[in-house]
Amino acid sequence: xxxxxxxxxxLFTALIQGQEAVHNFGSLQIxxxxxxxxHMDLVNDGTFDQNTGLVGFYSDQDPLTISxxxxxxxxxxxxxxGGGLVLETTVNVLNNVNLITGxxxxxxxxxxxxxxxxxxxxxxxxxxxxKVDGYSAITNKSSFVFPVxxxxxxxxxxIESLATNAMAKCAYFFEDSNNSKTLNxxxxxxxxxxxxxxxxxxxxxxLEGNIPSRVTLTWDDYSNVRSLGEYLNELKVVxxxxxxxxxxxxxxxxxxxGMAYGSVTSEVFVPNDYEILTIGGNNDNLExxxxxxxxxxxxxxxGDGTNDKLVLEGIxxxxxxxxxxxxxxxxxxxxxxxxxxxxxxxxxxxxxxxxGTGLASGIYFYILTMHDLRQKHxxxxxxxx
Length: 385
What we know:
Elements: H1 2-16, E1 21-24, E2 27-28, E3 35-38, E4 41-44, E5 47-48, E6 54-59, E7 64-67, E8 73-81, E9 85-87, E10 91-101, E11 104-105, E12 115-118, E13 122-124, E14 132-133, E15 136-139, E16 141-146, E17 149-150, E18 153-154, E19 157-165, E20 168-173, E21 197-199, E22 204-208, E23 213-219, E24 236-241, E25 246-249, E26 254-257, E27 262-265, E28 274-282, E29 290-293, E30 297-299, E31 321-326, E32 332-337, E33 362-370, E34 375-383
Parallel strand pairs: 1-4, 2-5, 3-6, 4-7, 6-8, 7-9, 8-10, 9-11, 10-12, 10-13, 11-14, 12-15, 29-34, 30-34
Antiparallel strand pairs: 15-20, 16-19, 17-18, 19-23, 20-22, 21-28, 23-27, 24-25, 24-28, 26-27, 31-32, 31-33, 33-34
């Protein structure tokens, strides 16, 4: 009860003096099942941690601001602020954030201020009208779905790291990477490690983290992924390399959804090696490649030394190539750049079977894109185990 009276006094003092914020100079704690609601700005220039109750922020139309010299450490929190909850200092959450209405907003020009989910903290209620429009962060987590976006669009990014992140941060930008006014940088979509990829100019994400990770990027109608590829399997994650100052293909280990809404997952990379990430595809030049039907192949990958691997004729003529193998449902089960006749019947995708697991007996369809010859070779493959 002591905190209840203390907070009431602070609120009363702020109102009678005509102030527009609750100003904490001392040490505040919320114990037990206590619920406290802020209907005005919070200036935290004192200690506000070791909480176990719920802190809510409520306003119908006007935005609310959290500022001050010290970071509030909240246990449970609730956001129902029509004009958005603006963070001018980092806010740490130890348990749960209930997103109802209004975005949690931070500056996107730098990563110093963020909404931080510590340890086992989570959130519920994310939507187009309530998310993080700015930087969301995690502490001591290996996987997380960042509930980021901007204005009226939720544009989540999923991170799956090979170890625990001491910290990782993410924000979404709905702007042309060729001329980012927010970051005051140009990430030219014409500067690419290979001419055979295309790069989205509709949006990008910024992700910080030093642990090798896979990321999943999402798209919606505004992403216009149809301009990046004719088929889903052509989509991929691309990143602007800090070392090379160009766009690099970060792979495609899984694709889900359709051209209007979906997601693509990268191969493993270190986020801190890249300034920004976005969705890429195949260059339009691939459409003018001539298509040649190759022979059909038969494999018996049983280790007896006969037909154990897919050996494609003429592969030496185009070392710069991509092999893709699909099952009878059209799902990509194997993909490799610079293929060297090493496919032994095991999938390297997670979409249908566990990665590294042998494919079932049956008929498969393959496409070999030979960039050096500007040709696409295709045919059927029968696997008998």
